[in-house]
Each structure stands twice: as C-alpha cells, then as structure tokens.
Amino acid sequence: MSIDVSDIPALARGCAVLGTGGGGDVRTGSLAAVRAIREYGPVPLVNLADLPDDALVVPLSGIGAPTVSHEMIHSEDEPRRVAEEVERIFGRPPSAVMSSEIGGSNGVIPVAWAAQLGLPLLDADGMGRAFPEVQMVSMYVAGLPADLVIMSDVQGNVVTIRPVDGLWSERLARAVCVAAGSSALMADYVLTAAGARGAVIEGTVTYALEVGRATEGVPDPLGALQGRLGAARLVTGKLTDVERRTTGGFVRGTATVEGTGDDRGRTLTLELQNENLVAIEDGRPLAMVPDLITVVDTETAAAIQTEGLRYGQRVTVLAWPCDPLWRTPKGLETAGPRAFGYELDYVPVEELTAHV
C-alpha cells in the first residue's frame, strides 16, 4: 500500500481526532504532504514485518507549542539534516520513517518527510494519540533506553543529545526547542526493526485513515465518528470560555463548554497542555489521560485543535479508551493524570461515563 495525494484528507481528519487537541494543526501537515507527494511520488506504507531486523527506523515529530508550529513551518532541510546525523552516528542510512505520534500534524507530516527522504513510512507510532512530553512514548514504557535525541530547526542548527533517561530527554529537548523558538524537528528512540517489535503501537496510520474515512459522505458524521471510535459523548454545547497561554514550549489553559439541548444546564471544563488532559463536570472527572478526549464540531465532526478553540463554537466532546499499553503501571506512571500534576487516581473512561 502507498499513501497518495487522495489519501491525505482522510489521514488528516483521522489524525486530528487522534490528536486530542494537540500534535499541531493538520492543515500545515496536509499541505506539506501533498506538495511532497506531488514532487517525489507516493509514499510506501510498510509493516514492521516487511523490514529486516537491522533496518533503522527513525521516529520523527515536531516538538514545541502548536500555536507556534503552524506559523513557523518546518523546512525541507530539517529531515535531511536529521537523516544525515543518523547515518553519521550509526554508519548506515535510515530504512524507514515512523511518526512519533499519530495525533495532529505529527501524524500527517511524516508522509512529507518520508517522501523527501525517499523512504517508506512505517504503519505504527509511539503513542496511538498525541502527548506533550518527549518521554511519553511507548518505547519508554517498553523500557528501551532513551539515550539519543537528534533535533534540527529552521535556522539550520542540528543538536545531538545523549540523555541519561527519558525524563532528561524531555528536559534537554524542551530547552533546545525553546531556544529554537518553541518549534523544532526531533528524532528520538532511533531503533532497529527488531527493537521496535513490541515497543511501538502498530497499525495506527491505517487506523487514522479509517477514522478519517468514517465521516465521509454520511448523513450523521458525528454519530459515525462516535461509533467508529467507540467513544462516549461527554457533552454537546457551546464554548463559553477559553484561557490559553504559551509557556515553556507548551500551550496550557482551560476551555469551558456549556451544554445545549439535552445537555442544557451542564458545564464541562477541559484542562489543556497542548492536548486535552482532563474533562471535569461539577468537580468530578468524566475522562482523563491517558484516555483520549477530543473536541469536535457538532455538525461536521471535524476535530478542533486546542489552538483553534474559540468562544461561541458549537462543539461535542468525545472520549474513548487509550491503547492498553498506557493502562499498565509504567504507562500510567508516564502519562497518567499524576504525571501532569493532577491529584487524581486514574479511572478508565468507560467507568467514569457509565451513567453519563
């Protein structure tokens, strides 16, 4: 299978939904992907089983604040510089590109990077969604050493970091990102195909395509999307307050949705850090990380990124279960509510919404 120009709209819609508000604006990634495919040709989509054990897989993602990344566009030189640094370090070129996170633009723009490098795209990622911090990837949860991060920015800088662990990879990479203007291209956990088996979440590019296609040409796109995701509808209403700030390489803030129609009289508050982290009603959580929480347009079911939330929008908030890896003790330690500073014990979304 290959990804062609005709696949990009569905991929973008699916990645926007899986981005849970983060991962960058898919419009930017879509434009880059379409342009690269037209210039370099369709991108082969491969499975891990298609690659030899020693094949180098390079997980790529943009790091930084989404509010910055859609204005400071990645250059075509950035993936080339990262690939050159990988070859310098390992003594052989990379064999495939992988999206570090399938959510948002970071799930779409790897198509462009793969096309520009003449490499296939791996049908996998390291999250099954989007998360804001470097160590919040399946490879870290699986226990792989976080001993190499390669970063490049639009100014032409290339930085190679040798962190002692995943938490230090976040601290150091974030500092470099902020110095670069809160947006950079990053490769972390460069790994062989053999090392990737069991440490990445497979099939997520295909899944994003399926999610994106679920709303194509149907009379009830919101119902179709909710059914495809197996999601709970937390509230349908109007955005009445959005507080958002960019600091430390993140977008942080809150958004408030007041219910309309059958939900009149209800108020839901979303806590944001690039992504939607916790949904709270009357002091009680209805969903929390690592489960997925996405805000969509009620009429079209198009996902709205955190930087696109505006007063007066008519929205529906959906939530659904994360990949089982994130519900393990290590997964919850890495990306559960307490990892973000919330004094909450994780409860699965299907339990929290059983009576909503």
TrEMBL record:
Residues covered by the S-Me-THD N-terminal domain: 7-161
Domain S-Me-THD-like C-terminal, residue spans: 166-349
Coiled-coil spans in chain: none
Gene3D superfamilies (alphabetical): CV3147-like, CV3147-like domain
Pfam families associated with the record: S-Me-THD_C (PF20906), S-Me-THD_N (PF06032)
Protein name: DUF917 domain-containing protein
